[in-house]
Amino acid sequence: MDKDCWFGVEFPQLSIVATGHSYFIQELKLTSYFLTVKFYNMEAWKEKIAGNWKILKGKIQQQYGELTDDDLVYEKGKEDELVGRIQKASGKTKEQVMEWIDKL
Question: Which residues contact 54 (CB under 8 A, 6 or more apart)?
Answer without folding.
Answer: none
